Amino acid sequence: MRLQFVISNQTNPYWNIAVENHLLSLPETEVVTLYLWKNRRTVVIGQNQNPYSECNVEALEADGGYLMRRRTGGGAVYHDDGNINFSFIVPKAMYDQTRQFSVIQRAVLDFGIVAELSGRNDILTDGRKFSGNAFSKGRYQDLHHGTILIKGNMEDLQRYLKPKPAKLQKHGVASVRSRVVNLSELNPEITSESIVPHLQSAFEEVFGGKAAEVGFDDIIAQPAVQRLYEEFASPEWKYGRWRSFTAQRSAQFEWGGVEVQLTVDEARGIITDVQIASDALDLAALETVRKKLTGASTSEAPAESDNPIERDIYNLLFR
């Protein structure tokens, strides 16, 4: 096993996510990568989320910010350059979420911050979230990435993100601000710069080796990375077809929130197009629902399923 360390010198989110996806695509079986990056004024949404429900898109873009859609599931998060993001890109045989989480826990412990994991793949301290995480599988390697809130602008976070009332009620709080914490509030010595060597040393300690640093500029000069940049920056990927739907249902379940938007051919009583926005981590179940609903009758639910996500969505639409 070899360890490598990549540090972005860009704050444009489309370059950062292009590099992440390029590293994930490589046929590596012996190299474990820790990639650190920052985005400037960016709302990041999950693969299956509706940008207009999760984010005040007009305000964000009027202020020079970015909307970025990732290829993993989970919910919307806000990035700015007061925070830092991490990606573990690990060959399948070595992938271990507990070990990867422990790198973050050990790094913040150097600043006297005791961190614990929550059931929804968040990292908390004293019951307040400072890191949200999401996951994806590649052909050769798997991805575990997340953000660390250090000195983020909480007013911007509230201005750009649109928390759903049902989600806030379920967690028993009144706003996004009360659910998260900047680590700099707990120890002013921690910054997005000062944490970097602690993340590197924790990475080497947990994985048991010395990490070699790989030049970021060498990576983004590759044509494959430039093509990924263009894909992630494209309006087709960022916004999809969310402006044009004619029917909508939404709800909050134990597995997460969901919003279903349908285009219906009323003359034939047929669903012609389906979009499902959700922070659920089971992307396969969401895709199964989308396929079953596309072309289905509006008067008859698909067959019952043992999967709770499928069952709850069908009940939401047809009961």
Could you explain the architecture of this structure?
By secondary structure, the protein is α+β, with helices and mostly antiparallel strands. It is 33% helix and 27% strand. The protein contains twelve helices and 14 strands. The protein has helices spanning 13-25, 51-54, 57-62, 97-109, 154-160, 165-171, 195-207, 216-220, 223-233, 235-239, 283-293, 308-318, and strands at 2-7, 31-37, 42-45, 66-69, 77-79, 84-91, 116-117, 122-125, 128-137, 141-148, 211-214, 247-253, 256-265, 270-278. A hairpin with a 2-residue loop joins strand 12 (247-253) and strand 13. The longest helix is centred in the first third of the chain and has 13 residues, at 13-25. The chain is globular and about 65 Å long. Mean pLDDT is 90; it is low at 166-178.
The overall pLDDT average reads 90
Q: What is the string of helix and strand elements?
A: EHEEHHEEEHEEEEHHHEHHHEEEHH
Please give the alpha-carbon distance between the first and last residues. Answer: 53 Å
- Provide the low-confidence segments as ranges: 166-178
Q: Percent of residues in beta strands? A: 25-35%
Helix content: 25-40%
Question: How many alpha or pi helices?
Answer: 12
The geometry reads as: globular
Side by side, the strands of the main sheet go 7-8-9-10-6-2-1-11
Q: Tell me the total number of β-strands.
A: 14
Oligomer: single chain
Radius of gyration: 20 Å
Q: Biggest β-sheet, characterized?
A: 8 strands, mixed
Helix/strand-derived category reads alpha+beta
